[in-house]
Amino acid sequence: MLCADKVCAVAAICATLLTPLARAADAVALGDLQAATRSLGFIDSLQHHSTISIGVVYGPAARDGKNSAGQTAGALSAIVGPGSSTLRATAVSSDELGQNGQRFDALYLMPGLAANGEQIADAVRRLHIVSISNDGACLDARYCVLMVQAGSGVNIVLDTALSAAAGVQFSSVFKMMVKRR
Amino acid sequence: MTPNTPDGLRATPHVRSRLLGTLVIVAVALLSSSPARAQSIDYNSLEQLFGESVTTSATGSPQRAAEVPANMTIITADEIRCSGARDLPGVLRHVAGVDFLQWANNDTDISIRGYNQAYAPRTLVLIDGRQAFADFYGFVPWSALPIELSAIRQIEIVKGPNAAMFGFNAVGGVINIITYNPSYDDVNTATVRTGTQGMLEASGVATMKLGTIGALRLSGGLQSENEFQTPIPPAMDGVPRRQNDRAQIEAYAVFALSDDAEVDVQLNHSHALRNDVMPAYSYSPFWIETNAALVRFIADTDVGILKFTAYTDWLSQHGVVDPTSGQLHSANQVNVVQAEDLFTLGSDHTIRLAGEYRHNNTSLTRGGNTYYDVVSGSAMWNWRIAPAVSLTNSVRFDHLTLGFSGTIPLGNPVPNAVRPPTIDQLSYNSGLVWKVDAVNTLRLLASRGVQLPSLANQNVGAPVVTSQTVNFTGVPTLHQTVVSNYELTWDRSLAELSASLHASMFYQHSAGITTSNGAVIFSPTGASVAAPNLGASNAAGLELSANGLFSESWRWSLSYRAEFVDDQFPPAANGAAEIDFMHTTPKHLAKASLDWTLGKWEADIFAGYKSNTLGLQPGPTQTVLVPIGAYVSVDGRAAYRLADWATLSVSGQNLLQSPQRQTSGAAVERQVFATLSVNF
After folding, report:
1. Spans of chain B below 50 pLDDT
2. How many other CB atoms are found less than 10 A from the CB of residue A100?
3. Cα B452–B307–B55 angle (5° rounding)?
4. B424 to A52, B168, B359, B479, B527: CA distances (angstroms)
5. What is the domain extent for residue A120?
6. Which domains, and CATH codes, for chain B?
7. Residues in chain B within 8 Å Cβ distance of A175
8. For B160-197, how does the pLDDT look when each residue is reduced to its tens digit (9 = 90+)?
9. Which residue, among A172, A174, A178, would best test binding to B if mutated, counting the most B CBs under 10 Å from its CB?
10. Do B347 and A42 touch (CB under 8 A)?
11. Which pLDDT value is given to residue B418?
């Protein structure tokens, strides 16, 4: 029994260490994407948009990153946006943000982008758009405005400093109902 | 206490002028409007986002139901629909820990955590935050509430005092009825219903967008039914029961002034003929008429969410026939102005600052009106101490001045020298919420609320009623009832079973409990019966509840409450002074429900068990206690969806046994009704 516990513990540690890579390759859970898009409905500047353009950001060095981001973009585009708006999502590499005339209303960040965090945070501030991720590490690295996870309960954390720097205004009701940091 | 015949408030001209004023405000709002979103709470979007109900009734701040610092139950619109109920008491009787006394087909008293009585005064009921509690006699006229069931988004029930938020009379609990907001919700429903007791009902709700400037909701209903034919105990028999009638109409408009500001306007009218059981436990039919007008301005600003609210409620009550006192008429007008600012400080603090002025006036007194003015200030501070721990403290201070206008007639049993008193009271709510882990949440709650004597009981001295045998009078120096509540709650999610558990232990101390009848004041013109402060009462209780799903077709719930009340009244008052909570509060209350859905079919069954209690009836001189046996009541509903837009259902109350004795009054009858609901 004790031996079995040790095996489980080692397996758990390995799983934890490998999680970022593994998650980067996985499509994001649909529940996370739905909660993220619903959050967009509480951003003042997106209130009247009939179509919301979302860049799904992947790391240029991530193995299969573009493919995973493409899958996520496809899933996002199939979701009805807030206020019955249409979501149009496109995969984009973090080093291409704001280039080639691409304009987005929001960014959805694939997991495991900490190495590109500075680049993304800079783009968020420069483009005045919201960045959303389900990766809790984005909060410590300060490159996501919202961290949105929908597991057994929805967990949303708002980075008020990055939000202010990007000029993204959320409704006061929303700000009161999420965790702020 | 019985209504009297003095000069009533002339409500109709007031109503007209107020309605006219409101229409002017609406017109101004229309002219200055621009396309925009509204600033009020979008419950639907927030529920979809968080996957759970959202409320503002606990602290004034929008919160997820799982995070509120209160013991709260939220009944959703779907649960209201599945209840099969035809009225609000029919919905509330299924809720864990809610006590109900159904005296007649259309007269029910509801309380939370026991302490129920005829004209129950301890539960504050509001519609979208506007008081629906009738201050003149301190009760809730359930059948005359100006709202249709199909216009209700959710019913929020707070157990225990929530007076720091809502002020006086929120002592046993608060029931805040939240209606659909036409800005966000498209609700278009028509319902027709017929059933036993000659019941006929038609009601409808429609929402519409007013171009780019706002949105409107209209609702109305008509209902008529016969009264139960079961005999009234001779001691309670008074005026013959009449047919129940009810009519209601309301309009709710929202106008967006800018991207960040809106004006809401609500106008309501209702009237109902009901067979009341009076505080002295005799039956008497009454017409009650209510009118209300509300204007609310909400703005999302740099300094927080600002909200200004002004409303007026008019209530009048007319005795239908009274062979001893003739035509009875009394009226009550409440004017309220509220202002609040709700804002965040840093990442961990949410603050609400509010002020309120209230003028409450009643025509109960011969020769004039009794009134009071209340100036209040309140503050709420929610502090997220740690990611899993939050502490909320709310405090409210109320300064009340009691007054009298008019001429106190000769023979006043309370000397004219008795000056109307002022009352200063502090209320608080404090709650620590600790999410121990992903599935367990603990709450430690403490609160203090103040219940005012009804205006009838504290009117300034002149006789309320002079019948052939006895005078009744108010006592302006009557003390308030102060209710302190302490409780520990535990919520646990059982995801593997698709279920959740709730447990709570509470201790409640009520000081200065008032009753309508029990003191005698002597004056040169004779003796008058008056309202006394009887003493204190303590209650301790345990609440357990669970609910969940099995398979996708079945939903279930179970609840149990054990409560033990210890009244500390003078021995002579026990059972003889119109209240006796120790013997009338059931020690055991259990409820269960089972809902089944498959394709186009739905079936719901609700069972309630109430242990044996004593009930009050009028005696030769004062009330007496009579035994009421334990009973089980069963309600049910079966429904078939004819089309996506039409549902036919058959539902019933008190199905198990008819007649069934549930109170000290007339036994209730089985009620069965068929309902056709159409969405358009």
Report:
1. 1-16, 18-20, 22-23, 25-38, 326, 468
2. 7
3. 70
4. 55, 11, 16, 11, 31
5. 2-180
6. 11-679 (2.40.170.20)
7. 344
8. 999 999 999 999 999 999 999 999 999 999 999 999 99
9. A172
10. no
11. 60
B291 C-beta neighbours (distance < 10 Å), count: 23
CB < 8 Å to A180, chain B: 344, 346-348
Chain A residues whose C-beta sits inside 8 Å of any chain B C-beta: 35, 38-39, 41-42, 44, 47-48, 82, 150, 152-154, 156, 160, 171-173, 175-177, 179-181
Prediction pTM value: 0.90
Q: What is the CATH number of the domain that holds A119?
A: 3.40.50.2300
Token representation of residue A54: 């979302």
How close, in Å, is residue A161 to chain B by CA atoms?
A: 10
Q: Give me the pLDDT at residue B448, please.
A: 98
**pLDDT, tens digit (0-9, with 9 covering 90-100), for B601-630:** 999 999 999 999 999 999 887 789 999 999
* Total domains in the fold of chain A: 1
Secondary structure of chain A as H, E, C letters? CHHHHHHHHHHHHHHHHHHHHHHHHCCCCHHHHHHHHHHHCCEHHHCCCCEEEEEEEECCCCCCHHHHHHHHHHHHHCCECHHHCEEEEEEEEHHHCCCCCCCCCEEEECCCCHHHHHHHHHHHHHHCCEEEECCCHHHHCCCCCEEEEECCCEEEEECHHHHHHHCCCECHHHHHHCEEC
Q: Are A177 and B342 a contacting pair at CB < 8 A? A: no
